[in-house]
Write a structure and sequence with these properties.
Helix content: 25-40%
Largest sheet: 8 strands, parallel, barrel
CATH superfamily: Aldolase class I
Structural class: alpha/beta
CATH topology: TIM Barrel
Shape: globular
Strand order of the largest sheet: 1-2-3-4-5-6-7-8
CATH architecture: Alpha-Beta Barrel
Oligomer: single chain
Number of helices: 7
Length: 217
C-alpha cells in the first residue's frame, strides 16, 4: 500500500486550525482534525463542525472524534464536508454504538464518506475485532488518546501486525508519536496511513518534514 501522510491538528482555537491547514495543503491530500471533549481524554479542543464550512482548501478533511456519543455528532461533520469520520470503539457500548448506530451512518453516507473505528492505546484489540467488517478502515492509537507529543509505544505494533496479517486488505491508520523513525516501524507492521503532528508542525520546514515522512525508509 502507498504511504499516506496525514497532518493531525488538535487546537482550541479555530484560527490556528485554519492556519495549519493552509500550511500543509501544498504537500498532502488529507488532514485530520482531532476533537476532544474531556470524556475520553483529559483535554478539550475546538469542536464546532459547521465552522469548517468557512475554510476553502483543496485537502480532504477527516475528523477523529475522541468523544462520547460520537454517533450523535457524526452527521454534523458530514454536513460540514468531512470525507472520513473516525469514532472510538470506547466511545459507547460497542453493541449500542457500532452495530445499529454506525451501520445507520454507513447507510447514509457509504457512497461518499469513509467510516473508521479507532482503538485507544490501553485498550485490548479484542474490542475492535467484532466490528472490522462494519468499517472502511481502522485507526490504532500508539498511546492513550489525548494531547499530541506523547511518546510512541512500540508494544502497540503487535496490534497492527495482527490486523494486517488477518485482514491484509484493511487500511490501517496509526496515530501517536509518528516521526521519521517510528513511521518505518509502523509501516513494516502493516500500517499505510500515518497521522503526524509534532513531527510536522514543530519543524522549521514543514514541506521538507512531510517529504521526509513520505520517503524515509
Amino acid at each position: 500500500m502507498t504511504r499516506v501522510i496525514i497532518p493531525g491538528i488538535q487546537e482550541e482555537a479555530f484560527p490556528e486550525i485554519k492556519r495549519k491547514i493552509h500550511l500543509v495543503e501544498p504537500f498532502v491530500n488529507w488532514v485530520q482534525i482531532d476533537v476532544t471533549d474531556k470524556t475520553l481524554t483529559a483535554n478539550e479542543s475546538f469542536s464546532d463542525p459547521l465552522t469548517f464550512t468557512k475554510i476553502k482548501t483543496r485537502v480532504n478533511l477527516e475528523v477523529h472524534l475522541m468523544t462520547k456519543n460520537a454517533t450523535n455528532k457524526a452527521q454534523d461533520w458530514i454536513t460540514a464536508g468531512f470525507k472520513r469520520i473516525i469514532s472510538h470503539v470506547e466511545s459507547d457500548n460497542p453493541d449500542q454504538f457500532v452495530k445499529p448506530a454506525l451501520s445507520k451512518i454507513e447507510g447514509l453516507v457509504k457512497s461518499r464518506v469513509e467510516v473508521g473505528l479507532a482503538l485507544d492505546g490501553p485498550s485490548s484489540l479484542e474490542l475492535l475485532l467484532p466490528y472490522i467488517d462494519k468499517v472502511d478502515f481502522v485507526l490504532i492509537m500508539m498511546y492513550k488518546a489525548g494531547p499530541s507529543g506523547q511518546l510512541f509505544e512500540p508494544s502497540q505494533l503487535e496490534k497492527i501486525r495482527f490486523l494486517h496479517q488477518k485482514y491484509p486488505l484493511l487500511p490501517i491508520e496509526v496515530d501517536g508519536g509518528i516521526n521519521h523513525e517510528t513511521i518505518i516501524l509502523a509501516e513494516k507492521a502493516g500500517a499505510s496511513r500515518f497521522v503526524a503532528t509534532s513531527a510536522i508542525f514543530k519543524s522549521d520546514d514543514i514541506g521538507q518534514a512531510i517529504k521526509k515522512l513520505q520517503s524515509v525508509n
